[in-house]
Write a structure and sequence with these properties.
By secondary structure, the protein is of the alpha/beta class. It folds into three domains: about 50 residues, no CATH class; about 220 residues, Rossmann fold, CATH 3.40.50; about 60 residues. About 40% of the residues lie in helices and about 15% in strands. The protein contains ten helices and ten strands. Helix 9 packs across helix 10. The protein starts with 5 loop residues before the first strand and ends in an 18-residue tail after the last helix.
Length: about 375
């Protein structure tokens, strides 16, 4: 991460990195591509279209620093799996790498975390401090501290707070387990000493919000609820992408990390078309749940794991084809040091698919042009 001094009357950071080419109303031809919903008819290359027998449009580019938005699906279903190997565990690493790469180029990066609704929002900014804020938001906003995402009821939260706070506050040792009001008061007093600056989680009462904030501020685990919320997250994502097209500064690149849709929903098609009309490029990275499989090394386990891997891979590829038809560029990720590689290797040998290499980098074919 690059550091730059603040100075001058504006007190702004110095520009870092080099401007990069981005789609827009420039004079340099970027590429000829198929017509997508939302493209202007003024950009149709009629001669090229006549030769190919389909509508082809011209994409131009101009040099400008990107305004990048990263949109993350943090539904509780994506926490399923072994601790440290759940799809969201891998997703946080992948999203952080995308943010770090763009910040190093000098781009402005914003972050939106969705889980049933908007869970966290960071406006686009630059610099090392903003990189720290993004990392913290990825950890805290995707967690299950809100009452509607956590498996813990208020009493369960209070027990965890009491066990953690007792060595830190001598007055808590004489407190009864059911004295939740006094416990919440002492927990609020201890939060300034916590290592993390956490937003206040949602809960029905101020007392429960204080107790849940204590868990978040000290990084105490809160297991996710088993109730699914993917449908509500998809609706929230469509609403956010639709509003993103009208935000200032105008986004030039939107990177979505989420499971791909199983069919082309009209609301999502319209939202993506609005982003394309303002010149924004949309990239989509789908999580790979098969990497989170943790089964015993037996004949039955291998058969079950092969079936799960095959079904997951087919669903992901089907969704990626839907995204491609909507004009979205699908970006795949190769990952380093994936645990439980025997599951992937056994499935790969039976399905004639390449096992994941021991590194994770964006595929060469999915790199920026």
């Amino acid at each position: 991460m690059l550091l730059s001094a603040r100075g001058g009357r504006s007190r702004r950071e110095a520009e870092i990195g080099r401007p990069g080419p981005m789609p827009g109303d420039g004079i340099d031809l970027r590429e000829l591509r198929d017509l997508h919903p939302g493209d202007s008819f003024k950009r149709i290359a009629w001669r090229a279209s006549a030769r190919r027998g389909k509508l082809i449009v011209r994409d131009f580019e101009h040099d400008e620093r990107d305004v990048v938005w990263i949109v993350v699906d943090a539904s509780v279903e994506l926490w399923a799996g072994t601790i440290g190997s759940a799809p969201l565990d891998f997703g946080i690493d992948e999203v952080a790498a995308v943010a770090r790469r763009h910040l190093a180029r000098g781009d402005s990066v914003g972050l939106a975390v969705l889980g049933g609704r908007l869970r966290g929002l960071l406006e686009p900014d630059r610099g090392a401090r903003h990189a720290h804020h993004i990392g913290l938001a990825l950890v805290l906003s995707t967690a299950a501290y809100d009452a509607d995402r956590s498996e813990l009821e208020e009493r369960d939260v209070a027990i965890r707070v009491l066990e953690h706070l007792r060595p830190l506050d001598a007055r808590v040792g004489r407190m009864g387990k059911m004295d939740l009001d006094r416990l919440a008061f002492r927990a609020e007093a201890a939060i300034p000493r916590a290592p993390f600056h956490a937003a206040t989680p949602d809960a029905p009462s101020p007392r429960e919000r204080a107790l849940r904030k204590y868990l978040a501020a000290f990084g105490i685990e809160s297991p996710p609820r088993s109730d699914p919320e993917r449908a509500r997250t998809e609706e929230a994502m469509v609403r956010f992408l639709d509003r993103l097209a009208g935000r200032k500064p105008r986004p030039s690149l939107v990177h979505v990390w989420a499971p791909p849709p199983d069919h082309a929903k009209p609301e999502l098609v319209q939202a993506l078309a609005r982003l394309r009309r303002i010149g924004a490029l949309v990239r989509w990275t789908a999580p790979r749940p098969e990497l989170s499989i943790d089964l015993e090394d037996s004949v039955v386990a291998r058969v079950v794991s092969d079936a799960v891997v095959l079904r997951s891979r087919m669903a992901r590829e089907r969704g990626e084809r839907v995204l491609t038809r909507m004009g979205v560029r699908v970006q795949r990720v190769r990952r380093w040091g994936v645990p439980k590689t025997h599951v992937m290797e056994s499935a790969a040998s039976r399905m004639s698919m390449p096992a994941p290499p021991p590194a994770w980098v964006p595929d060469a074919k999915d790199e920026e042009p």
